[in-house]
């Protein structure tokens, strides 16, 4: 491509609303242009990146045996009503009416439509397994779209859906996709982790997120440096401590802690480690009658070590809390504890509560907790002696760095990631809602076992940039760079030698199948170099009159601190030798 | 591709609402699946065709120097309000509100957004000319979606927009695109015509439609078999007759024509050719004051030969009618003619009207027309003698077969076409509405001169089928066939020889870069052949045990009436020699 035939448009200033590097750099590099909140035009320079992402995804999906189709952007509400999502989904589902006032949605995803196709198409087990995918425009009316393509409203997603005869088959399809995803993310040339994620009602290891590692990532990722273990924060298990509970060494005491309503403040005041304090979280569950009216409530007390945080997903799976819970009201707290929050604890309750102790709390001795009296805490608290052993001990906290890895092979570390892919076994959730069946070998109808697999096509470039940039601009991995090589002639309009050499090199590289751009715009060297460093083309060759007189061109990789002189005659071979390294 | 890894799904029956061949065949061949009225999933077999259409279009757009970008599907209403189209467009513009009740539209086309980009990006004449294109999902909420992909609501369109410094430049950009379109449609392998179309306010030869010729086409196309002349019906000029008007030979007479209110009935009753009758069309124009209130009206009488039809586009360009017109009301007709429609004519008017005679009518002698009295016509009417020469003589009719070609090189013929492309000079319509300017060489702001260029990507396959099918199914041109060659082994599961030969041939063809499918589904021959004839793969090779024993395979092109025996060892070369013919 010659720059004069392409469209290069860079900006000195980033937009005021650009909070992260990828948003700033993609805008400045002329890759995206904001049309509305969370809605962007993919400008020519950005679209090249997106197309390369798409091509890699498509190749690997095809290789994995998935079959491409394209489902409509505008989808009739009827199907979404069959699964209840038309009502259940919040305003992020963009609902519209056509000229006849019939309801439609703009697809945020396509489980309903693909399940509708499946129930029409799959008559026999002989047609299974099958995996359909599409690379298509999606819309989610996010409440707070931000970070450019990272959390936009309109975006491009690759979504795939597998259909199997049974859960075993679904798991095999899932593993096949998970493998394809590894190949895809390997090819992108990004540092990423496939992390175990919560798979909801299905259970088991049937959900993984693909996270591009970046300091600005919205997600916390847990991994073990000494093993393959990796999970997202929701999923990562905190093992039960191996050490036994120490014997009580202190007496139970009511200690004044005036105005100290947090564990941290209490620990500081009393000169003890935060890890010897226990915090109280009060939840409630409601009992409903057949009409959905609340007919009774239950208050729960969760005990966590002062330096630990509650993990909502883990809590939501506890027996008794797995049908939904809420934080207790002030009235409920007062009713059961006789005290306001900040000084709550498991001793001296006014009314009984259901108690859940985190695994760590269950093995503590001589701990400190609220006294259920304002400005007082209990110290030297011990299980069995001062209160009964906990009814329920469970993992209800987020892991922290240094925790033992669940696979027993070392300790856990935590880093930040950007979710760019997700693979998931859905089971029969959608096929049951939509009565999507096939006939098994005995001729009996069975619900299709499904899986779904997403990649955020337009989020990927943003994640790549968060991971790969410096103060001058983007540093693209070769596989998804808008151009792989840029040839920068200096004074092409004045020097016939420069022009000839530049065009010859450009032709040579093109003939070798290299995605090369010749910058024939006639910009001055400073502006030209700044443009390509901002845009982030990995390989640059500078051709100047002075260099040519010495028979030299200058090569520089975007990560190099300085240029390498290359004999003019061997420039093409030199570049080819650098590609793919 | 192997069929077992792909998705082949054919139907015996076409859907009840499928009125045209392409709709029936695409549905039966498993290429599209209806999701809602005018909304279709592109199933794997159909998507392959669409992707091939896209690839050809993209290649030729790039070759022509256009630059690809992608504009959002969901577009803020503000831009559409700037051009007034948000209000002016009818309900085919799908309007939506987001969660904050802000107005948006689903793009039916993207002039507003691209002009918004242009006004931000183009600062200097040095950046021009430039042409941006996209291949993107569109939505038009058609009142009567029908014919499958031919007139759907959601569809894929390639839309390109050129920006130039002046009209001369815009014309050059237009010619460049028109040429690219010819290359594109040549490559599709379809019989088509580029026909001159009306270019509205711009004038000149600055609009062409690309029409795929098909008996079921919605458009009438006019062409000259002896020259390059081709135009759509709206545009095609009817030349002024070369012969002079004959001298009057008959006396003016009021002739009873009881109950005969059409020219055809009158001609039959009086035993004269239809071409000697003249029909009266009564139009009206309104005079508006500054507030848009009607302050007066003018009635027009248009005279056309009895066998000719009025051309609305031509009429809408006449001086006095070019600001809009309507058909006259019954009251206005009665007021001016003193008679009801069916017997109207230019003689014996109650009040004067503005008279326009078609060029053919102006040279007629002894003609017959309504007497402005029920059940009577005037015969032997002659200009000058019986009524004044017409104030305005103009071309206001549709041409008919046999008319002289406007280029003077023969006579006109008429055929049916399906519009699949349109190139058009827009001028400054959008740039003025949206104040999109650039600085010219003198540093003065000038409005961008624009052109727009569309191809109906998803309509094209439907048009191709209307032109190329038989009673057994589709006959794809090679360039856009879902697969170019299908290898059909008979009894692959029983015969190791057949399996080996089929896979060897498949591998050979694949290695040669042929888009080949191996039907390894194990269907019986009859069902297998019927599937591929329905789907319309151009080249088929059948491999059977019996044939192999004789060292023969059977080749058949989809258009061949019978198979050709080919030596098994030379099958690949044979097929390769048949490709692209």
Automatic annotation (TrEMBL), chains A, B:
E.C. number: 6.1.1.15
Alphabetized GO MF terms: proline-tRNA ligase activity
Catalytic activity: tRNA(Pro) + L-proline + ATP = L-prolyl-tRNA(Pro) + AMP + diphosphate
Positions of the Aminoacyl-transfer RNA synthetases class-II family profile domain: 33-477
Compartmental location: Cytoplasm
Keyword ATP-binding in annotation: yes
Highest taxon of the lineage: Bacteria
Sorted UniProt keywords: Aminoacyl-tRNA synthetase, ATP-binding, Cytoplasm, Ligase, Nucleotide-binding, Protein biosynthesis
Top-level EC class as recorded in UniProt: ligase
InterPro entries, per database record: aa-tRNA-synt_IIb (IPR002314), aa-tRNA-synth_II (IPR006195), aa-tRNA-synth_II/BPL/LPL (IPR045864), Anticodon-bd (IPR004154), Anticodon-bd_dom_sf (IPR036621), Pro-tRNA-ligase_IIa (IPR002316), Pro-tRNA-synth_IIa_bac-type (IPR004500), Pro-tRNA-Synthase_IIa_type1 (IPR023717)
Family the entry assigns: Belongs to the class-II aminoacyl-tRNA synthetase family. ProS type 1 subfamily.
Domain statement: Consists of three domains: the N-terminal catalytic domain, the editing domain and the C-terminal anticodon-binding domain.
The protein's assembly and partners: Homodimer.
HAMAP family in UniProt: Pro_tRNA_synth_type1 (MF_01569)
Annotated function: Catalyzes the attachment of proline to tRNA(Pro) in a two-step reaction: proline is first activated by ATP to form Pro-AMP and then transferred to the acceptor end of tRNA(Pro). As ProRS can inadvertently accommodate and process non-cognate amino acids such as alanine and cysteine, to avoid such errors it has two additional distinct editing activities against alanine. One activity is designated as 'pretransfer' editing and involves the tRNA(Pro)-independent hydrolysis of activated Ala-AMP.
Protein's recorded name: Proline--tRNA ligase
Organism name: Variovorax ginsengisoli
Gene this protein is translated from: proS
């Amino acid at each position: 491509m010659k720059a004069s035939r392409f469209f290069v448009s860079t900006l000195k200033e980033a937009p005021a609303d650009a909070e992260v590097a990828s948003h700033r750099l993609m805008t400045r590099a002329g890759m995206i242009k904001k049309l509305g909140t969370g809605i962007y035009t993919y400008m020519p320079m950005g679209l090249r990146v997106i197309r390369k992402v798409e091509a890699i995804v498509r190749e690997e999906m095809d290789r994995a045996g998935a079959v491409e189709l394209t489902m409509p952007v505008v989808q009739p509400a009827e199907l979404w009503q069959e699964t209840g999502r038309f009502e259940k989904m919040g305003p992020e589902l963009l609902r519209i009416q056509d000229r006849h006032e019939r309801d439609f949605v703009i697809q945020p995803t396509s489980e309903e439509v693909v399940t509708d196709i499946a129930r029409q198409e799959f008559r026999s087990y002989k047609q299974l397994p099958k995996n359909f995918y599409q690379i298509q425009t999606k819309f989610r009316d996010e409440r707070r779209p931000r970070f450019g393509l990272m959390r936009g409203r309109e975006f491009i997603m690759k979504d795939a859906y597998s259909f199997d005869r049974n859960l075993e088959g679904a798991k095999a399809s899932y593993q096949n996709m998970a493998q394809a995803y590894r190949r895809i993310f390997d090819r992108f040339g990004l540092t990423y982790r496939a992390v175990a994620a919560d798979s909801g009602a299905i259970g088991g290891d049937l959900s993984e997120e693909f996270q591009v590692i970046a300091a600005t990532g919205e997600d916390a990722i847990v991994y073990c440096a000494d093993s393959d273990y990796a999970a997202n924060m929701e999923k990562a298990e905190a093992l039960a401590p191996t050490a036994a509970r120490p014997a009580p060494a202190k007496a139970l005491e009511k200690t004044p802690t005036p105005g100290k309503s947090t564990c941290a403040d209490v620990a500081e005041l009393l000169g003890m480690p935060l890890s010897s304090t226990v915090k109280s979280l009060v939840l409630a569950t409601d009992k409903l009658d057949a009409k959905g009216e609340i007919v009774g409530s239950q208050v729960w007390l969760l005990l966590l070590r002062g330096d630990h945080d509650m993990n909502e997903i883990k809590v939501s799976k506890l027996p008794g809390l797995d049908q939904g819970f809420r934080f207790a009201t002030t009235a409920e707290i007062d009713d059961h504890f006789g005290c306001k929050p900040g000084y709550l604890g498991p001793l001296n309750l006014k009314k009984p509560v259901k108690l859940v102790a985190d695994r760590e709390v269950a093995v503590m001795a001589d701990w400190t907790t609220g006294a259920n009296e304002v400005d007082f805490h209990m110290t030297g608290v011990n299980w069995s002696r001062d209160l009964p052993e906990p009814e329920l001990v469970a993992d209800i906290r987020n892991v922290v760095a240094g925790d033992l890895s669940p696979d027993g092979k070392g300790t856990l570390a935590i880093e930040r990631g950007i979710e760019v892919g997700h693979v998931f076994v859905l089971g029969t959730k959608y096929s049951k809602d939509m009565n999507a069946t096939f006939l098994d070998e005995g001729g009996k109808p069975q619900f299709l076992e499904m899986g779904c697999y997403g990649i955020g096509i337009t989020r990927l470039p943003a994640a790549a940039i968060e991971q790969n940039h410096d103060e001058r601009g983007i540093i693209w991995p070769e596989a998804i760079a808008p151009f792989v090589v840029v040839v920068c002639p200096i004074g092409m309009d004045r020097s016939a030698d420069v022009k000839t050499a530049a065009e010859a090199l450009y032709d040579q590289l093109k003939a070798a199948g290299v995605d090369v751009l010749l910058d024939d715009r006639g910009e001055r060297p400073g502006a030209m170099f700044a443009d390509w460093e901002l845009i982030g083309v990995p390989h640059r060759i500078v051709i100047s009159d002075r260099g040519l007189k010495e028979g030299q061109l200058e090569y520089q990789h975007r990560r190099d601190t300085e240029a390498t002189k290359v004999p003019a005659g061997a420039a093409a071979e030199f570049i080819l030798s650098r590609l793919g390294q």
